[in-house]
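sorry for the late reply, my laptop died twice this morning and i had to redo everyting from scratch. anyway the thing you sent over, i finally got around to it. pasting the sequence first so we're on the same page, its 66 residues, then the predicted structure underneath. double check i copied it right bc i was rushing
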Amino acid sequence: MQQKTITVLIDETGNSSVDLDGYAGHGCEKVLKDFQGDDFAKVQRKKPVFYSQTSEGQDRQLKSGR
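ok and here's the structure:
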């Protein structure tokens, strides 16, 4: 089983980013939504591994701000 890692960064101006590693498909979407809550994403980028057909999973990166 692949290790799952969630990295949350908040800069000095209040902008934040969430980086999810080791999550796949709808599991990734659910974890991302849990962190997002009622906030919305300014920018949402899928990592290259998201598009791969391997079983290692899909990763997402979310950037949001206030």
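The beta strands are 5-10, 16-21, 43-46, 60-64.
thats about all i looked at so far, will dig more tmrw
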